[in-house]
Design brief:
alpha+beta; about 160 residues; disordered N terminus; 5 helices; globular
Length: about 160
């Protein structure tokens, strides 16, 4: 094909995608099966979009979109929220869940998650785990540092 790498057109395997495409994404987190320890879901970030990967294609291109607004920046500056970002879990351009910091003077390090009534349980689980992970990363950086040291010691 005129000097173009033919593997692009002939190979659609997951190994090829991981090697050529997904290596450019930052791996945010993985959700492992509690018994087998096998990674069931992985969240990878590229810009403002976080892709949700599974071992199977059950989620049909689910992703997490990041939004910011002036109002959430105001809540962050007042100490009512731990992040100026809010996140929407989407499948096929439909918002299935919203994850955002709880905006309150009395509960500044909490998350609030709202689901669509038709949201699948897998997306509910991913939304909850993603919200907790973001809270640990942003609201409690000392705890995130301890978790990172624990992982390095046990590898």
């Amino acid at each position: 094909m005129n000097g173009v790498d033919d593997t692009l057109f002939h190979s659609t395997s997951r190994d090829w995608l991981n090697e050529h495409f997904l290596s450019h994404f930052e791996n945010l987190m993985g959700i492992k099966h509690p018994v087998s320890g096998m990674t069931v879901y992985e969240l990878r970030e590229l810009g403002g979009t976080i892709l949700i990967q599974t071992n199977t294609d059950e989620l049909k291109g689910a992703r997490v979109m990041t939004q910011t607004s002036g109002l959430t920046s105001l809540f962050l500056n007042c100490g009512c929220a731990f992040s100026k970002e809010t996140w929407s879990v989407m499948t096929q351009d439909k918002i299935m869940a919203n994850v955002r910091p709880n905006r309150s003077f009395w509960a500044e390090n909490e998350i609030k998650i709202q689901w669509d009534p038709n949201c699948e349980n897998e997306l509910r689980l991913i939304s909850l785990v993603f919200g907790i992970a973001q809270m640990v990363r942003v609201a409690f950086p000392q705890l995130f540092h301890i978790v990172r040291e624990f992982r390095q010691r046990n590898q």
